[in-house]
Specification:
By secondary structure, this protein is of the alpha/beta class. About 40% of the residues lie in helices and about 15% in strands. Helix 14 links the parallel strand 19 and strand 20. The strands form six sheets. Strands 15-16-17-14-13-19-20 form a seven-stranded mixed sheet, sandwiched between helices. A five-stranded parallel sheet has the order 10-9-8-11-12, with helices on both faces. The two termini are about 35 Å apart. The longest helix has 24 residues. Bound molecules: NADPH dihydro-nicotinamide-adenine-dinucleotide phosphate. NADPH dihydro-nicotinamide-adenine-dinucleotide phosphate binds next to helix 8 and helix 9.
């Protein structure tokens, strides 16, 4: 069977992937530092103010010069989308599907170049970087497939004899108009690219606003859409601070709906601000997580340790679905903790473009400082560092935002960091007397994003029935709480992790 790259298969890729990636990194390094515009109404648009986008693993390295867009650019992008929306919405859905597929195939063709840029800009290791790009293409293909399988969501309804006359009724999927997509730094490709896949096949025009830390890679995504040939104004891309440009997009009454992926606080603010128009507007929120992995006394501990380490420290703990809490039944606690320590101490930290590297840097100075503050708080709160707990210094580490992968034990369950999303490579481990206690703790947070379980089949069913999370896994060495994939494991959310059941890569995503 041909190799299919996903977050579950990425641990053992074929040699061609490494070769392609190495070549792309070498090429890209020759061309760093170029200036990139925003894309509004099909044209490159430049702002008076710019910023230099630095790599988090070598802050001396300028990757690209980007535009510091402002409220007026927000208005221009929305106006362009508004102008393009009517024609696009009346374009036959089959043609919209064709263009979305074409964009997805361009993304696949450029996977090495895009993966290399991702590693340089986000600090993801090479397989995570390539995975993010492939996931984007697959999310777009999946929305196209959903549209096709449902024949454009145009369906003749039943003829109800009770109405007393012969009537023909159709249910049709109509677009909203202008859709805003605001994305986070950690999956800048998939979480910028997945939502437009669904929104565009459904006939909306979009305005995309990436995180400032990852504006360059999202520009490369926008180029894939531009090169696929979407009509001018159907896809617009603006860059600049969330607090000004982003807020102007949210505040505009000319935006008809939005997908926001990011932190709880910013998302909730957006949710409230979005209610400021004279009628309700749809907003899909994909927010933070505090994801538990529960390990029963009957678990396969080798699988549990592998899955937990991968989910705790993949992308340096900066995944919304990262396993940030581990709850272990007392009889297997010591053995599991021993395995976690041994595996974590073997993890390679370094330049994320290098083949051997598993952990790169955290994204920026703020995250770097957060780590320091959290470790101090843990120390004071009675926690012990099973692994890590420090910055990495010397050589390459002095140039980037490097932190050690950190497992914490003995932190009392009452401590606030058991409930707070830290978003750095720190995971707390707790000993529980039984699975009921584990479940109570697992569900005692505001979030409900991802959760994992290791135990017997009967216990697994018990877990699925009770856990409050949008995406759940059991007995998975590939990742305790991470690894969703379009069409295979839809990415849902519950409670403070999001506002709808329109799971990304699932059956209901196109019909927002
Ligand atoms: P932030 O909430 O800081 O930022 C997300 C986006 O919002 C960025 O593009 C940011 O722009 C923008 N933004 C900031 N302020 C405003 C504003 N007032 N109006 C409009 N837009 C604004 O999140 P991070 O980028 O730090 O991402 C990490 C967070 O995302 C974590 O909490 C993580 O759990 C969550 N996440 C959730 C996922 C899910 O599917 N549930 C998936 C991935 C991440 P700028 O960068 O310019 O400030």
């Amino acid at each position: 069977m041909a190799f299919k790259l996903t977050y579950a298969t990425m641990f053992n890729p074929p040699e061609e992937l490494h070769k392609g990636f190495d070549k792309a990194v070498a090429n890209l390094k020759q061309n760093l530092g170029q200036e990139y515009g925003m894309i509004i109404d099909g044209r490159d648009v430049f702002a008076d103010e710019k910023w230099d986008d630095h790599s988090p693993f070598n802050t001396d390295c300028v990757l690209a010069r980007m535009q510091k867009g402002n409220a007026s650019h927000a208005q221009q992008a929305i106006a362009a989308a508004r102008k393009a929306a009517p024609k696009w919405s009346h374009t036959p859905w089959q043609e919209r599907v064709k263009l979305v597929r074409k964009a997805a195939s361009l993304i696949e063709k450029r996977i090495f170049e895009l993966g290399a840029a991702m590693a340089l800009e986000v600090g993801k290791n090479r397989m995570e970087s390539l995975g993010d790009v492939q996931e984007t293409a697959d999310l777009m293909y999946y929305s196209a497939l959903m549209m096709e399988q449902n024949k454009g969501f145009i369906k003749e309804m039943g003829r109800d004899p009770l109405v007393g006359y012969d009537a023909t009724n159709f249910s049709v999927l109509r677009p909203y108009g202008v859709w805003l997509v605001v994305s986070p730094f950690n999956f800048p490709f998939a979480l910028t690219g997945g939502p437009p896949g669904g929104v565009l096949v459904a006939g909306n025009a979009v305005v995309i606003k990436p995180a400032t830390d990852t504006a360059w890679i999202v520009r490369l995504y926008a180029e894939c859409l531009r090169d696929a040939g979407f009509p001018d104004g159907v896809v617009n891309f603006v860059t600049g601070p969330g607090s000004t440009l982003g807020q102007a997009l949210v505040d505009s009454p000319e935006v008809d709906g939005a997908t926001f992926t990011g932190s709880f606080d910013v998302g909730m603010k957006m949710y409230r601000d979005f209610a400021g128009r004279n009628y309700v507007r749809p907003v899909v929120l994909e927010l933070g997580g505090k994801n538990p992995a529960i390990v029963s006394r009957n678990a396969n501990l080798a699988d549990a340790a592998t899955g937990i380490v991968r989910s705790a420290f993949g992308l340096q703990g900066q995944k919304c679905s990262a396993a940030s809490r581990v709850l272990v039944e007392e009889p297997v606690y010591d053995e599991l903790v021993g395995r976690l320590k041994e595996m974590t101490e073997k993890m390679a930290i370094g330049d994320p473009t290098e083949r051997a590297t598993y952990l790169g840097p955290v994204i920026n100075q703020n995250s770097y400082n957060d780590f320091k503050n959290f470790t101090e708080e843990i120390n004071q709160g009675g926690g012990r560092f099973l692994t890590g707990g420090h910055v990495k210094t010397g050589g390459l580490f002095d140039k980037g935002y490097y932190r050690e992968p950190t497992f914490v034990t003995d932190l009392p369950f009452e401590h606030r960091l058991w409930k707070h999303e830290m978003f750095v490579p720190i995971t707390t481990i707790g000993k529980v007397n039984n699975l009921d206690q584990a479940m109570e703790i697992a569900n005692s947070v505001n979030y409900g994003l991802a959760a994992g379980f290791y135990g017997s089949l009967a216990e697994t069913n018990w877990f699925f029935d009770r856990i409050e999370a949008g995406v759940t896994y059991a007995n998975r060495p590939q990742g305790a709480t991470t690894g969703a994939w379009a069409g295979v494991q839809p990415f849902g959310r519950w409670k403070g992790s999001g506002d709808s059941g329109k799971n990304g890569g699932g059956l209901y995503y196109v019909q927002l």
